[in-house]
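Q: How would the C-alpha cells look for this protein?
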Amino acid sequence: MTPQNNTLQRVSVRVPATAANLGPGFDAIGIAVDLWNELTVEPGPFKVVIEGDGAEEIPRDEHNLVVAGARAAYEARGAEFPEMRFHCVNGIPFARGLGSSSAAIVSGIVAGFALQGDGADPTEALELAAEIEGHPDNAAPAILGGCQIGVKSGEKWITSRVALPDDLYTVILIPDYVGETAHARSVLRDEVQRADAVFNIGRSALLVNALSTGQLDLLRYATEDRLHQPARADIYKGLNTIIRAALTGGAHGAFLAGAGPAVMAFTTGRENTVAYEMTEAARLHGIEATTRVVRPTERGAHVVAR
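A: Here is the predicted structure in C-alpha cell form.
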C-alpha cells in the first residue's frame, strides 16, 4: 500500500495478550484474551516511557520491541524512521507466556503504519511480526484476535480463524517469576518420535474441532501434548500438578501458556473453583501465584486514538 500522508501525529494502539500452543499446537495455534497493552507514539526526541507490568525489566533504548516494530513498519514503506516518543502502558503480564513480546512488536508495527497515514494490512503486519519473532502463533491472534491457526507456505504466512463458543472463559495462573523463552525452547529436542508426532497431530485436530463445534468435553484430551510440555515440566515445577488441579476443579482443558510459566485453563463455569485449585496446587510446590479470569477476545490490535 502507498502511504497517503506522511505527517506525524499522536497515535494510540491497543493489543491483546495471547497464549500460544494451547497444548498440542506447538508454534501453530494461539488465542487472544482480554488483557491489553496500550502504546502511544508521537513525534519528539527519542524516549521510551514504560508503565505497568515489566516496567523495570524492559529496555528503554533502541532494543525495545515496540521500537523494533515501528521501525519495521517504516522500512516496509521505504521511509526514513523519524525520532519519536513511545509511551507503553502494559497490562499483559511480562515474560509469563502471554505474548508480551508479540504485543510489543505488533503495537509498534500498527502504530508505525498509522503514523504514516497508512492502515496496516493484517497480512502485511503479520508478515513483519512473524519475521521478527520467527513464528506466528502469538502474532496472528494479537493482530487478528480470536483463536488463530498460523502456518507458512514458502514465503507466505497463512492464517485461519477457529470459531470459539460464546460462553468460553479462560482461567490463567500467573506465577510470581518470569520465564525465558530462549531457555524454554532450548530444552526441547530437535527430533521427536513418530508416536509423539502422531499423538500431537491427532490432538491438534481434536482441539480445533472441539472448540469450533462446542464439544468441550473433548478438551480434556485435546489439550494434551508430548512435544514441549514434558520437557518444560522439568523447568517449571508443579506444571503437571497444576494442570491436573484445573481439571479436578472443573476446567475442560488446561495447558502451559506459550513458553510459560503461566498456565491457562478453558472453562464454562466454576471459574473461581478452578482458580482456587490451581493456586493451591502451585502453593504446594512453593510457587506464589495470582489468577485472572478473562474471556477470549475476537478483536485484535487496533488504533484507539489519533
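The chain has ten helices and eleven strands.

Residues 194-213 form the longest helix (20 residues).

Upvote if useful.
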